[in-house]
Amino acid sequence: MTAVEIGTETATAVERPIGAAAETAADPVSQPTVVTRQAARERRERKHQQRRVVRRVFRPLVGSGWNTPRRLIVFAAGVVAAFLMLGGAWSSVVDPRIQANRELRDRTVPLVATAEWLTSSVSEADSALTAAFLSGTAGREELQRYLDAIDRSASLASEAARLAGNDTELRSAVAEINEQIGRFSGLGRAATARQAAGDPKSIDALGEASSYLRRRLSPSVNAFVKAARQRLALDRSDALSAGGLVPVASVVVVLILLAVSAYVARVSRRILNPGLVAAGLIVVATTVGAMFTFSAQERDLNRARDQGTEPSERLSAAGTAADDVQYARNTSAIAGSLPDESTGVLSKVIDREILPNDELLVRRGESRMGGLLGTALDGLDGSETRAVASETVRRWSRYVVLVSATSRLADTDQFTERVRSNAVQETVAFAGFTVTADSLLDLHAARAQTETSSALDRLESYRQFMVAAPLIAMVLGLWGLQRRIGEYR
Amino acid sequence: MATRRDMLRSFGLAAAAAAASACSAEQVADSGVDRLRFLNWNDYIDEGPDGTVARFERSTGVKVAYAPELNDNVEMYNRFAPDLRAGKRIPYDLLCPTFWMAERMLAEDLLDPLPIAELQNHANLDVPFLQLPWDRGARYQMPYQVVVAGIAYNEALTGPVNSMGELLTRSDLAGKVSVLSEMLDTVGLMLLAEGSDVTNVLVDDAQRSIARLRDLLASGHVAAIRDSEDYLAALRDGTVHACVAWAGDIIQMQRDDPSIKFVFPTEGAMRSFDTMVIPKGTPNRSAVAKWMNYLYDPSNAARVTRSIQYISPVLGVQVALERSGADGAELSNSPLLFPDAAARARMFTWGGTTADELDALLDDFAALQEG
Fold first, then answer.
1. Can you say whether the dihedral through the CA atoms of B353, B357, B358, B364 is positive or negative?
2. Which residues form the domain of A270?
3. What percent of chain B shows pLDDT beyond 90?
4. Contact A118, A156 (CB under 8 A)
5. Most CB atoms within 10 A, among A30, A210, A243, B163?
């Protein structure tokens, strides 16, 4: 009421001091009212001015007026921006995952497998060298096995260097290992040459070679395996990272679509806009598909870990403990002393006597053996893997029978004599175990590789949808808006 | 006496035999999957109604088309390799080439892996065969029998001949010496005598040995290069006093003539083995697995050893023979069938040559035979 009066009586109020209302004009109470009206007018004027400025700025965008079609065009631009944002967000999740997964498949998983084969091959070289020494001239097969193991170690080190790529830490570790293999090989060859020449100091030369392997080469290889495993863990984590960003980005876009839909529904008096609804459904479906794909990818990578890299790590640990048994026996026999550690370490590998039934249980995947090897063979799936695991148990069992026969000897001379005379037999039985365990490592590596490949295939296939879906949804959304805009033209 | 080394040198005869075996094998192939078609060397298994094949059939219900018609590694390769390369099936589920041919076939991707999941007796494979650089873990082949080449001499006609050096230089043996037509064994033994590493053969060294053999043939010291049947006959009738020989043949011969002796030469003996491989695309893998498991059961392997008397690659055969009593127990003590560590340390297997190099050496050696 007051505002209306102020608005309509503006002209007369200015003229009042001249006529009968002069008294009112001079009224000290009435003076502030005039000032307030003027201020309000000025404020109103400023507001109009601002609106005019805004309209002037946006006029080129929305045409000659800020009407509904122009609002729809602005919304269309917003929809385009939202879908571009969505595509960017999805790519920022999927592309690094694909990259990390590819890295896992092509580099890290083979690198870890190569590192483990390297460990096994270096241990075999050590065991074959000491056995060749113990068996004297009868140990030519062992000597050959030592030389083969050295050659294999060198070629595995080269392969590891290739797989290490640009990782300077891994590359320098491999370079060091390569150098140490060369040095160990030289020491071993010198020792066997001295032995062949009947040099009594050849034992010292062998001790030097073996000690070099234990002090330098083995720790370097172990450190390399550890570094390779760390890299595996990092790549695995990268391959599974930032999955949550996909639904978050999708929710933002769906909210934008809902808001636009609500406006369109209000102005068009139609509840559903088919284009916007289709766009929203595509976003939701693609997001759900992405979550399923990520989940399947994670399952594949978990299988790669549970049936590939982790059993392989446990098997390597069992193999190292087994090597320690053989090493303790051989060095004790060479030094003419009783082995303090071998029987103790033996129980580390499998902590109880192996029963005939165990082999069958391992074949069925129902093994309940303890110890490092028992744990490594627990819960394996795949009939071929379990068959090789079962063979590993059988071959370990054969070795243990041979070892146990001498481990019970309390007399040093008897022990030394028996180990020396059985050296070839023991080493051959031990080699049977290690080669079969290596076959199992191969199967684990192949499994890890297969599962990682499967994860990568899933991601790469789904990536095509994730690229296409925002584009299709965007086109549909624009088509929906265009229909409304067209009605106003 | 016939052995699996009875090679049919005539290509026509070989081809005819192969065609006949292919026919019977194909007939078996058409009759269902529980069939095994096995191409092996001749006289290389215990035959008859109580033989290994018959016992296997009774034990497992798998029908076997046993074709003892493998006469030559190269001939077999030339016959099957083109089909295998083209992805076609061949009429056998199991072949038994010598190790170097198995290695070549594996390198050319002509073999399927063993059905390891079904091979519980793979664990009875002797360890050295797990350590082959070309098939570590024995995932593509299961050795059938091991053949050791060394020196045989007739004690009634000459004194002991303990080394290749003696065999090829002793004047009292001039004209009374023969070598085997198997290049890898004869040239391998000569290389060992010259101090070469036969596990990593250098082609020049091998060619020098072949040239030396040519000279020995020309001078008449070596009377002939003989195949398996010829050399045994010559040894038996006294034409040859000493020769390069296979241990398995001599063990069999000693039953009739104890004066024939076999020695591992002091420079070393050559060891080779024939091995069971699965050609690519074989449908009857399950039957193959049953057969391999059966053969790798020590008691079944012992029966084969008892019959053909080659070194078995199966662990536990010695004990099984000992338990079998009679001549089996006697065989279990044979140093030729179960060489000790010292003897094993003097056995070497040919290696290090590429397929092309080996082909060239085989051609050079064949030229000597033809000459």
1. negative
2. 73-484
3. 67
4. yes
5. A210
